[in-house]
Structure formats: structure tokens, C-alpha cells
Amino acid sequence: MTSLGQLGRDLRAVVLLTTALFRRLSREGIVVRSLTFPIGLVIGTLVLTIGVVAYIRFTPVVALTPELATAALIAELEENEFRPLITETPQAAVDDNEAWAATDGETLWLRGGGPQTLVVEALIRERINAPWRPNTQVPKPDLSAATAMGRNIVVLLGVLFSLYGVVFGAGMVARDRDDFTFEVELSLGVSRWVHGVVRILAGSSILAAFLCLGVALCAAILGLDDPASMVRHAIACATGATCIGLLAIGRSGIQSGFTGALALGMSLATGCFALGAAVPALGQWVPMASLVAGESSGWQALAGTVVLAFAALVVFTRRSAAV
Amino acid sequence: MRLRPSRIIAIARRDVAQTIQGRRGLTLNAITALLLIPAASIPITPPTQPFEPQSIVVIGDVPDEVLALDGVVRASTDYGHLVFDRDGDSRVVMGPSIPPQVRRALDGDSPALTIVRTTPTFPIPGRTALLALISASVLTGGISESIGGERSRKTLQVLLAAAITRGELIVGKWLAWSGYAAIAAYFAATIAILTGRADIGWWLLPLPMVAAGTVATGLYLVRHTSDVVSGAAVSLRVLPALLTITGLVSWYFADISPIAAAALPVGGALLASGSTWPGATAAVVSTLSTMLFCALLLWRTASDLEQPARPAHSWIQRLRESAGVTLVAALCWWMPITAPLLWGAAGNQGLTDRLPTTPGIVAAALALLAMSGLRMGRVSDPLPSMGIKRAPLWSWALAVVSAVVLVVAMHIPGLSLGGLPDLLTSAQGRLHAAVQPTAAGLAAALLAVTAQELVFRGWLQRLGGPLVAAVAFVLVITPLEPLYGAMLAGLFGGLTYLSKGSVLPSLAARWLATLAVWAWLAA
């Protein structure tokens, strides 16, 4: 009965302390800004770039002499999103910035380059029966190209959030130790493992929430083949990184030994990514590594995260939370 | 506001001396010199030849003249830079670009069509703009420490209690770092002139103004920071963005009106310091506009410094907070739901058509929920602050009625704005589908309506009142269907009001309507 009562008290403490730590983290402006900044920067830049391309996209004017301007050519130009302009002096139209391209059938004047110049050249060459012409079909990226890019962005966010996770995991303990909050917590009548669980839950939940938001935004704007598996990888990544931070911190505080602990944690986190890239079959089971280990469901990474969390909890309880 | 030169200079000297004394100061000076001296003196040779690949891989019906060219190799796989084919008598070449030597080989002695490219001329800033940019970039540390450092050392209160005004304190700090950067920039400019890399000209006038504008902005940004770390976190994020964005905007306007471009504070000075425009006008305009910008920012910083906080419950404060929440909510809602339409507007309609809408709705809902979660974490009474509290019994009956009204309202035609451009019509469709997104699946729909109710009825209605919450709902959720949005906002805002501020009945009504429509669709 006594041990059951203790367990009940410990679980209640886990809930209350996790909520308190979560609220402490969300109150810190620097934490919130740090978490929103990478997502805002990556997604904002992407949307802004597409928006600017959409805004500056224009219908190019192609100036033609009346002799060249057959109904068929005009129809083909319009079909390819050009606006024909019939004039006796096509070169002057380009010089005066009235037209983007101009031709008299012998010379093609162009302002700028890009795939559109090949299209207009092809149409003019076809009209004058030239012996060769470029192909007018310029392929555009399809959904598979976009989803591949979406996955790359999720990996990029995952790497960033892993580094944050290590800093969170180590920093939460070091800062609390320096301002004696940790000592106060240790004096509570609850088991020592509670303090490790609380830090893993609070740190990983706030990180995972923002990383999952990043995954959802990538799925919305670029598409992802399997968003649910990416969410599992993201949760594993955030939790694994926090656990590594807790593993690495030992008995250090912010002012004593933090740099070494942080360097160890960062090395372990980047080592995980290297493992995923080098040995994908093993990397699928390791949090963080699973993001770069190719296609997998993410369940294996979550299983690996549970093992890592248990290891981190044991080390933290025996070393960091020892009196 | 009194500004006495002797006090200002004393503050400036103290600020610089504190930062650049000892080994740390040596490091700052060494880094500044290491960056500026090469930028001022190393010759820059523009590329004379366009980039061309070392070898061109070709496949298909390749003519002998092309195969005989140096660097042209026939592909051993299915991939090639250029694919040659025939269409009747004509040869068709497919590739992202056709190199000039291949064109010459295909044309032979008498080309059927001669290509003449006229490159548009853009004003390009010269190397002296780099000197202004570098001299402004090395100031992050100084700016970060300027106010935050004083505050963490507890010396700011001592300074404010001394016989100096707030204006003298801030202008002194601005002068310290603007002066440091100006000396560094003019030192580099002298090297550039002596080594023949630049000529004496009007660009010397706006040269120190880039750093001056950067310092003024930096001081404004760090005016409330508590220490160097938070000061650095702010200035490291914002100052590079300020220089880049104002520089790019000014460069964009340069083609339209050089004077308007030069008048843009900081960015105009940056371009003018690079001799982008000939003559004195742009240099003078950019200098004056940046000086005015500095004066306004310094006045604002001095006014804000260590002033007692304004009453938190004034209606202006509430309105301002509500506007901020509405703005962030709009970004969170619009970006994931409507951004896929931009692919089509940018020329790839196929991608827009193939991107599913459900992830956008889920992402938007998660973003609104993240806002609500952060709000709950920051206040002392998390649940009541979001309207999550007990509601009167009779309000649950009203919730059922509201759910019925919502289901009917979803099918009333003619509530959308008509005659919109194609892009806005598509956006209207997507935003409409996201209001009560039953078609996206039950989980996504419940998530979306919960997020909407928490932010608009739970948070904003409590913060700004029912009217502000209703306007925010229409602006964010149904900007292109204002009548439909106003009807929903009125219905659920009224329900929340009658429920004594509890969001639970309106949330229940939205859930009930969602479940009813979902069950009807499933059947």
C-alpha cells in the first residue's frame, strides 16, 4: 500500500510539475521566439518567394512585323502566354521597353533570358521554316518534386530543433541548479525519477508541438508523401534530443561545466544524424537519425526513443538528481 | 527634451571606453580592420566569360557537326543535357538552354534567325556600399550591451538619476557607436581612395549614415532588454533583416524613381554610399532621410526608457492587443490554407491542383491552437482566460439551437462576394471550406472549429469584447464572405456572451453541427 501510495503521489507530481515547467517555458519570450523563428523564417521565406514570383510574373509582349503576324502564329503566341504586338519597327519596341521580344523574321531581339526565350524562338523559327528549332515543351516541377523538397525542409527543421532540444534538456537542469530551483524540487517528498520525467515531458512536448506545426505547414504548402510518419519522426526527434541534453548535463550548472556538457550533447545529436545517413537500417531505430535514414513509418524511431528516454532517466536520476 | 553636447560626449566616451578597453576591444578593432581593409583594397575583377559546362552530353538524332564540337559527348545512358529529334524536315532540340557553339554548328554559314540579346541595365551599387555595410555589421555587440548591459549591471538607474536627461543618455549612446562606425568607414574609404579602388565623390556623405540608422534602430529594439544576451538575441535577428530589406526595397524603387529610392531610410543611404546614382541629389536626400529617421527613433527610445508601464486595462491597450492577436491569427490561418494557390499564380497550376487542402486546414488549426496554448501558459488563470469555465444550464439548450442554425446557414446561397479576380475566387473557396471543414474529415474539422472558438470567442471576446471578436473573426476566417462570417460571429459571439463568457456552449454547438453534417455526408 505504501509503495502504491508513493506511486500515486509521484504520478500526481509528474502532472503538476510538468504543467508548471511547461508554463515556465512558454512564458519565456526567448524560448517562444526561438521556436517560432525557424518555422517562420523557412515557411515565410518560401511563401514570400512564391508570392514575389507570382507578383512579378508578367505576360511578355512579342513585337512582330505585319508580314510575320499570321493568324496561326498569333494564336500560338497567345496559347503560350505571350502578347503579340504588330509594328513596323520591332527593334524599336524592344529598345523602348515596350516589348520583351521582337522579330522581323531575320533577327530576334530579346530582353533577358530563361525558358520563355526558347519558346518564343521555337515559334518564330517554325514560322520561318528554319532547319532547326528548340522544343517548346519546358517541363515544370510536379508534386513529387515538391514533396521531396517538403521532406528536405522537415529534415532541416528537425536538425535545428534537435540542437534546440539538447540546449533545452541540458539548460533546464543547469539553470535550475544555478538558481536553486532544482534543489527545492529535490527536497519535495517524491521519487527522484519524477524530476527527469518532468523535464523530458515538458521539454519534448513544447519542442514536438512546434516541430509538428512545421511538418503540417510543409505538408500544406509543398506536400508530404506521408505526413503522419513525419509527425512520428518529429516527435521522436524532439524527445530524443531532450533526452540527450539530460544525459549530457551531469552535475554541471550554467556557470560551471555547461560548455563541456553542451558540446557533448551536440556531438551526440549530430552523431545520431551521421549514423542515420551512414547506416540507414540502424538509423531507422534511432531518434533524429530516422529523419535522414530514408523512408520508414516512424514507429521504430518512437520505440528507439522510449529506450533512449529510459536510459536518460536512469543516468539523470543516478547522477544529476543524486544528493 | 534638453540635449547638451558636453553631456552627450561624456556618455559616448564612457560607452565606447567600457566596450573597447582591454583584450575585448582589441578583438573588436581587429575584426573591423580585418573585414574593412580587404574590402577597401582588394581588386575585384568582374567575370568576362559566361559560365558554360565543361562537357555537353547529347542524345538522340545528333548531327555530325554538333558531335564534332569540343566538349560534346554522346550519352551512355538515357540522360543528356540536349535531346535531338526530328519533326519532318526540321530538327528539334530539347534542353534547358542551347549553348552558343551548338547553335553555331546547327546554323552553319547562313543562320536562319540571328539572336540579339539586350541586357536590361540595373543600377548596381559599387564596392563602397560594402564598406558601409561592414561598418554597420560589426556593431551588434556594442548595441546589445549598450542598454541591456547597463540594466544588468544596475548602472542604468544610476545614470538616469544623474544630472543628464534621457535624451542625452540615448543620443550619447547612439553617438558612441555611430561615431565608432563612421571612423571605421572613413578609414576604409581613405584606403580605397589611396589604393585607387574608389574616387572621392558624393558617396562619402551617406557612408556613415548606414551605421547611424542601424544603431538608432538597434537602440530602439533593445530599449527594454534586461541583459546582453536578450539584447543580442533581438539585434542579431532584426538588424541584418533591416539592412537587407531596406536595401532591396530601395534597389527595387531605384528603377522607378531614384529620389524615392534614396529617400528610404538606411536602404537609400546604403545604395547611395555605393555611388549607385550619379550626382549629389540622391546622396543628400538619403543622408537627410536617414538623419530624420534616426532623430525619430532616438526620441521614441528616450521617451520609452524606464517609463512606468501603462495601465493594462485601458481600452487602447486592449484594442492594440486585440489587433496584434488578429494579425498573428490571420497569418496563421491564411498562410497554410491559401499559400498553395500561389504556385498556380506563379505559373505551376498543376501543383496547386494536386496539393490537398486537408493538411492546410490542419496546419492552420494547429497554429491557432499553438497561439492559444502559449497564451494559456503565460497567464495565471489559464482556463478562464480562454473562456473555459462553467456555463449556465440553459445555455446548453441555446447551443443546440445554434448548431441547427449553423447547419442551415451553411447552405444559404449568395453570402459570398462576387466578381472577384480568379485568384481571390479560389482563395474564397478554400477559406469557405475551412470554416466548418467537414469534408476534410472529422478529426480535422473538430480541430479547426475548436481552434477558431478558442481564439475568437475564448480569447478575443474576453480581451476586446464581442464586437472586436466578431470583426476579427470576419477578417481572419471569412474575409471574402463577410456576411456569412458576420452571421456566424454574431450567432456564436452572442451565445458566448449569454453564457457569461464561457466558450464551452459555442464550442459544443460547433462540434454538434460538425458531427451532424459529417454523419449526413457519411450516410
Give a brief outline of the structure.
The complex is a heterodimer of chains A (323) and B (523). Chain A is mainly alpha-helical and 323 residues long.
Describe this structure in words.
The complex is a heterodimer of chains A (323) and B (523). Chain A is mostly helical. Chain A folds into 2 domains: 2-50 and 143-320, no CATH class; 58-127, no CATH class. Chain A has helices spanning 2-27, 29-56, 71-79, 90-95, 115-127, 143-178, 181-186, 193-221, 227-249, 258-278, 280-283, 289-292, 299-320, and strands spanning 61-64, 83-86, 101-103, 107-111, 132-134. In chain A, α3 (71-79) links the parallel β1 and β2. The radius of gyration of chain A is 30 Å and the shape is elongated. The model of chain A has no long low-confidence stretch (mean pLDDT 88). With 523 residues, chain B is mainly alpha-helical. Chain B has 24 helices and 5 strands. Chain B has helices at 5-20, 22-41, 64-67, 100-107, 128-137, 140-152, 156-161, 166-194, 207-221, 228-254, 258-263, 267-272, 281-304, 315-338, 341-345, 349-354, 358-378, 382-385, 393-409, 422-435, 442-464, 466-476, 482-498, 504-522; strands at 56-60, 72-74, 82-87, 90-94, 114-118. Chain B has a 4-stranded mixed beta sheet, with no helix packed on it. Chain B is flat. The model of chain B has no long low-confidence stretch (mean pLDDT 87). The interface between A and B is large, with 63 and 57 residues.
Topology diagram in text:
The complex is a heterodimer of chains A (323) and B (523).
Chain A: H1 2-27, H2 29-56, E1 61-64, H3 71-79, E2 83-86, H4 90-95, E3 101-103, E4 107-111, H5 115-127, E5 132-134, H6 143-178, H7 181-186, H8 193-221, H9 227-249, H10 258-278, H11 280-283, H12 289-292, H13 299-320
Parallel strand pairs in A: 1-2, 1-3
Antiparallel strand pairs in A: 3-4
Chain B: H1 5-20, H2 22-41, E1 56-60, H3 64-67, E2 72-74, E3 82-87, E4 90-94, H4 100-107, E5 114-118, H5 128-137, H6 140-152, H7 156-161, H8 166-194, H9 207-221, H10 228-254, H11 258-263, H12 267-272, H13 281-304, H14 315-338, H15 341-345, H16 349-354, H17 358-378, H18 382-385, H19 393-409, H20 422-435, H21 442-464, H22 466-476, H23 482-498, H24 504-522
Parallel strand pairs in B: 1-2, 1-3
Antiparallel strand pairs in B: 3-4
Helix pairs in contact in B: 1-8, 2-5, 2-8, 5-8, 5-9, 6-10, 8-9, 8-13, 9-10, 9-13, 14-17, 14-21, 14-22, 17-21, 19-23, 19-24, 21-22, 21-24, 22-23, 23-24
